[in-house]
Design a protein that fits this description.
It contains three helices and five strands; from the N terminus they run E-H-H-E-E-H-E-E. It has 151 residues and is α+β, with helices and mostly antiparallel strands. It starts with a strand and ends in an 18-residue tail after the last strand.
Length: 151
């Protein structure tokens, strides 16, 4: 399991994504899937950094763990204002860019990248759970999530 907790600022975004990237690489997750996960994680973290704390500062924690042999979970936890990202409507992607409402595309990307997303609030904390199913290796068609010790 990986757990990293830092101030919810855009300056810490790279540290979060690099830590998760290295954790995923240590389990031989494909580079293509890591890039998709990184996009979803970055979008979720940007929302926390920009909107969760409004007029105060706070922390955000990212936890990563494997649920089973082919699924892993990333949780984003903050104590900011309650915000259920799952209730946002799907943006109108067919509308002309000039006619679209601002916002919502980041959440759209999260929904597209993750296998499932769930939100709940517990003990004053927002908990956004992103589940990802490991993508099979193109060469073998198999999914094997194993810890790569570098040997």
């Amino acid at each position: 399991m990986l757990s990293i907790k830092l101030k919810a600022t855009l300056a810490n975004l790279e540290e979060f994504t690099n830590s998760v990237f290295e954790w995923l690489r240590s389990y031989d997750v494909s580079q293509k899937q890591i890039m998709s996960i990184e996009l979803a994680l970055e979008e979720a973290l940007v929302n926390v950094c920009l909107y969760a704390y409004q007029e105060r500062t706070g922390d955000v924690e990212v936890r990563c763990l494997f649920v089973d042999d082919d699924r892993f979970l990333i949780e984003i936890i903050d104590s900011g204002i309650p915000f259920d990202v799952c209730t946002l409507p799907t943006p109108d992607l067919k509308a002309c860019i000039a006619e679209r409402k601002i916002g919502g595309l980041g959440v759209h990307f999260i929904r597209k990248m993750a296998t499932s997303i769930e939100y709940h609030r517990k003990d004053g904390f927002n908990i956004l759970s992103l589940t990802f199913k490991a993508v099979p290796d193109r060469g073998t068609g198999m999914v094997t999530l194993r810890h790569n010790t570098g040997n």
